[in-house]
Amino acid sequence: MTPRCYILTLSMALCIISLLCALGAPVSPTGAHLMLCQAHSRCGGKLYDPQQHCCYDDAVVTLSRTQKCGNCTFRVCFEQCCPWSLRPQEAFVVKVRGQGCSLARTLGDRVCSSVS
């Protein structure tokens, strides 16, 4: 092949990839959720779609996953359970994920009592 054919072939390949990205066409077998142009994240050794899942304790979990925090329930992808012992009957605080547990309480925090 001549250099002109290589350039034409490369241009066509880039055009096809651009079209696939624009249309969101899958490039993996049916049933797999990874797309060529879709953003994805890693959790341990696994890839996941951050619009449907999050990484919690090195495990991929759904965005709706909840867990107990004393007598409260918190959403593990968006909140965190922090120990808090200013009062004996209030042993936990649910804070926004990423906020330091050692920071003072804010208006959005929920105080949870310990379960006996």
UniProtKB/TrEMBL annotation:
GO terms for cellular component: extracellular space. Its main location: secreted. Keywords: Secreted, Signal. GO terms for molecular function: signaling receptor binding. It is found in: Secreted. The keyword Signal applies. Pfam families: IGFL. InterPro entries: IGFL (IPR032744). The keyword Secreted applies. Residues 1-24 form the signal peptide. Belongs to the IGFL family. PANTHER family: INSULIN GROWTH FACTOR-LIKE FAMILY MEMBER 1 (PTHR34827:SF2), INSULIN GROWTH FACTOR-LIKE FAMILY MEMBER 3-RELATED (PTHR34827). This is IGF like family member 1. It comes from Pipistrellus kuhlii (Kuhl's pipistrelle).
